[in-house]
Write a structure and sequence with these properties.
The complex is a heterodimer. Chain A is α/β, with parallel strands linked by helices. Chain A has helices at 17-22, 56-63, 85-91, 107-117, 122-135, 151-162, 181-196, 208-214, 232-237, 244-260, and strands at 4-14, 29-40, 44-49, 71-76, 79-80, 92-95, 169-173, 200-205, 217-222, 225-231. Chain A is 40% helix and 25% strand. In chain B, helix 9 crosses helix 10 (274-301). Chain B has a four-stranded mixed beta sheet. Helix content of chain B is 70%, strand content 5%. The chains are: A alpha/beta, B mainly alpha. The complex binds adenosine-5'-triphosphate and magnesium ion (MG).
């Protein structure tokens, strides 16, 4: 079973004094993800859509075992992020802006390093390196230190490295951030390719066009809660305008009014 | 196990592929110590030479010509000036200012008084706060004493000497040269060794752990299917090896500068045999693991490199004080419990190795207890790596 099930996930952060000021709130806690559930299936791209601060990254960090849920669980291909976090880490490829690569090393060195940490054979590492580096145009920059790479090239290197072990589950948090149209296209194209190879792909973004173009299903999160979760077509049908953007705005407006009561 | 090796290699490569780090963490400590100690040695040596070359200015009253000849025979570098009672206060002031080094006043009928056995009193004046005056006093006190002996002998012959001291005793000085040299090392080295191990580890530890947190690269490592304990062990081992390199460089610095510092060629480490070096090395290894363990735990706890360095400083100074306390004793502690105390055990066992007085039980207690402490520290480090609060605190 290569499905990824998010089950009643809840994550609360304690806010430090500094964060309270930044968020302009007096409450000591922030519920970042609130009773969130959804399922992503193999052979499809699931889009996690939501405005800034909605809880997308928090949800994905929980799936990737970087942080533990307060309540609920995520089953990744049958392994629980709470109980078998070690197994989960072997199955997923995770990308988020928080995961940085060390400036001192080259893409070539780091790819091999992480390949080894995933327990891969040297030969397999080399083959995958050649493929992925070619695919993302890293070939010519593979001996340049990460610190000297452009933002886009860094991002592409991160993407390649997150896929070193050919994971069944691909969890990408705003993968096209900071990329030019051409490069962004190569990334989304590759995600489609992964989907066609039967991988389970979860993608978070606030770019509606990306969702419309490549996602099979999507969930809209606002304030940590899942507002709607369905195929793109069905989501669109909920509004006479048949426009994702309208639906998105409506949901946010509703939430704001709800919060006022 | 394989992962430990992979992480070790990467951490190690991080340092040795970085010219700046090689210089600051490995080469600089040795170079700095060599230059500092050589300079100190030269300065000390120069000081002595300076005093020897100084022409003493001594005011004398009624100096017997016999004594003057005595002084000339001893090739003393001195200018005698005539003392006038009327100038007494003025001369005292000059001694205070360091313009005059000494006054020696013989009574008027000094020589005849002696012959009549009237025991005349010689008056001397000097300033112990001035190095030239001090040296003048030491020289003339010796000369006057010798002069006294020779006068007494001339007057009374053998009847005067009630006893002699070691006049024909060739075995007067009984010393095990090696042990004496060892004692010298034991006073100097343990503190320095601990300091070097510490500063070596301090120059790379915070960057390798707190730095990775600060830069967000640790998260990339934490999402791989690698046990946190393997990350902890891999990091501690590679930091330890590099700290050992750094300490070795410092050690070479000391050994090369010792002859200059001591102003003698006698201080040489070739008094120690292979087994001493093996013991010393194993102790250093165990010690560096403990030190790196401490630094790693602090660095994992701290939010930034800066905070880590700040938190490490008090412990660093604490160990220096511990090292200092043994520096003056130059002797290892006897109590077994000392050898169960982290770092303090190392200082004491290093002393006993250097003074050829190692107790096997204490040696093994030091190694074993250090390994236990490292395991505890690695366990804590492992827990810290597992804590999202610690790893992702903002
Ligand atoms: N470590 C933390 N401590 C305190 N609050 C946090 C922490 N991480 C996230 N939050 C808060 O939780 C909420 C959700 O954040 P999250 O990063 O998941 O949002 P997001 O949907 O990814 O937003 P964006 O589109 O801006 O990336 C935000 O209000 C954020 O301030
Ligand atoms: Mg985000």
């Amino acid at each position: 079973m290569q499905t990824l099930e998010v089950l009643h996930l809840k994550k609360t952060f304690k806010l430090s004094k500094k964060q309270q000021k930044l968020e302009k709130t007096k409450t000591k806690e922030k519920v970042a993800v609130n009773d969130l559930s959804f399922v992503a299936y193999p052979g499809e791209i699931f889009g996690l859509l939501g405005p800034n601060g909605a809880g997308k990254t928090t949800c994905l960090r929980t799936i990737s075992t970087l942080i533990k849920p307060d309540e609920g669980d995520v089953m990744v291909g049958g392994s629980s992020v709470v109980k078998d976090s070690f197994d989960v880490r072997g199955k997923i490829g995770f990308l988020t802006s928080e995961l940085k690569l060390e400036d001192h090393f080259t893409p070539n060195y780091l790819f091999t390093y992480f390949g080894r940490l995933h327990g891969l054979e040297e030969e397999i590492i080399e083959t995958r390196k050649t493929n992925l580096f070619k695919k993302f145009g890293i070939e010519d920059f593979k001996e340049v230190k990460v610190g000297d790479l452009s933002t886009g090239m860094k991002q592409k290197t991160s993407i390649a490295i997150s896929l070193v072990h050919d994971p069944e589950f691909i969890i990408f948090d705003e993968p096209t951030n900071g990329l030019d149209v051409l490069t962004a296209r190569s990334v989304t194209d590759y995600l489609l390719e992964l989907r066609d190879n039967g991988k389970t792909v979860i993608l978070s973004t606030h770019i509606l066009s990306v969702v419309e173009k490549i996602c099979d299903r999507a969930g809209i999160i606002i304030n940590g809660k899942m507002k709607i979760c369905d195929t793109i077509e069905n989501i669109k049908k909920t509004n006479p305008s048949n426009d994702l953007e309208e639906i998105f705005f409506d949901l946010i407006k509703q939430e704001d009014q709800g919060g006022a009561f | 196990m394989k992962n430990i090796g992979t992480i070790f290699k990467k951490e190690f490569y991080r340092v040795i592929s970085d010219k700046r780090l090689i210089f600051t963490a490995i080469l600089l400590p040795g170079l700095a110590i060599y230059l500092m100690y050589s300079f100190m040695g030269d300065a000390l040596g120069g000081e002595l030479e300076d005093v020897m070359n100084h022409e003493m200015i001594v005011y004398v009253e009624n100096m017997p010509s016999e004594f003057e000849n005595f002084v000339l025979a001893a090739e003393t570098n001195v200018i005698f000036e005539e003392y006038q009672v009327s100038e007494h206060d003025q001369l005292k002031e000059m001694i205070l200012n360091g313009d005059v080094d000494m006054i020696i006043r013989f009574p008027e009928n000094f020589v005849t008084d002696i012959e009549n056995q009237e025991i005349p009193d010689v008056l001397t004046y000097y300033n112990p706060g001035e190095k030239y005056s001090s040296f003048a006093y030491d020289s003339f006190a010796g000369l006057l004493n010798a002069y006294k002996q020779s006068k007494a002998f001339a007057l009374f012959g053998d009847a005067y000497s009630i006893f002699t001291l070691d006049s024909e005793n060739a075995e007067h000085i009984i010393v095990n040269e090696d042990k004496a040299t060892g004692q010298g090392f034991a006073m100097l080295l343990p503190m320095l060794i601990i300091m070097f191990l510490f500063s070596g580890a301090m120059s790379i530890g915070p960057d390798s752990i707190a730095g990775e947190k600060e830069r967000g690269t640790i998260a990339t490592l934490l999402i791989t299917p690698v046990k946190r304990s393997e990350i902890a062990i891999g990091k501690v081992l590679s930091l330890s090896v590099i700290s050992l390199f750094s300490a070795t460089s410092s050690f070479i610095g000391i050994v090369l500068s010792l002859p200059k510092l001591m102003q003698s060629d006698g201080m040489s480490i070739d008094i120690y045999g292979a087994s001493d070096f093996i013991m010393l090395f194993t102790v250093l290894l165990a010690t560096v693991l403990v030190i790196v363990g401490i630094i790693s735990v602090i660095s994992a706890y701290a939010k930034t490199i800066k905070e880590a360095s700040m938190l490490i400083l008090p412990i660093y100074f604490g160990t220096i004080v511990l090292g200092m306390s043994t520096m003056f004793g130059g002797e290892a502690a006897g109590s077994f419990w000392v050898y169960m105390t982290p770092l303090y055990s190392s200082i004491n066992i290093i002393i006993s190795i250097l003074t050829f007085e190692v107790d096997a039980i204490n040696y093994f207690a030091t190694i074993a207890s250090s390994l236990v402490y490292v395991s505890i520290l690695i366990f804590i480090l492992n827990k810290l790596f597992q804590s999202e609060k610690i790893m992702f605190s903002k």
